[in-house]
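Entry:
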Amino acid sequence: MIRCGAIAVMVAMIPVCARAQAAAPPEHAATRSYNTALGVECEHCHDAAAFVDSSKPTFDFARRMQRMVTGLNEGPLKSLGGVVCWSCHRGHATPPRLPRADWESIATAHRAEFSGRDDLSLTMSVYSASLGVACGHCHVDGNWTDRLKPAHRTVALMLTIFELIPAYFDGGVRAPRTQCYMCHQGQVSVEQRSPRDDQ
């Protein structure tokens, strides 16, 4: 009799023990940081019936994005403060792209300076619109090749990001299309926190 009772107690304890041994939920589940950053509910990446099921493409993509953010923050962005999901997404599943009209208006305004140098016109106009700055933010007026300004030197560091990002993704499946505007969105500083974080 006692033995049967002990077995019954042990059997009843199995679900409790299994729960105790189960992996703790990831931090983003408690903070809902992904939900806020991407403006989505959990089912955007997870199967509601099986949360650990990784068969949804968005589940794998989110995992790769998190590895990318960690890699960039421990690498080229370490001295700059890094990024978080909110930095680029800001409440949207897909980060915004630079509106064509924003950079075209800058290229048009500087047509004379870039005459015959269309690639340079495009590059400088995109940088300017992406960060919301004039040429003098990075360049010394009258000496465009001078690299003394810290912002000009930062560009070289930032360009390495475009080489690193593809390493975190399977190009045959899906990879993000990146541009400066995705993180900067017309500002020099990249946002680190959602406005909701301060509420």
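The radius of gyration is 24 Å.
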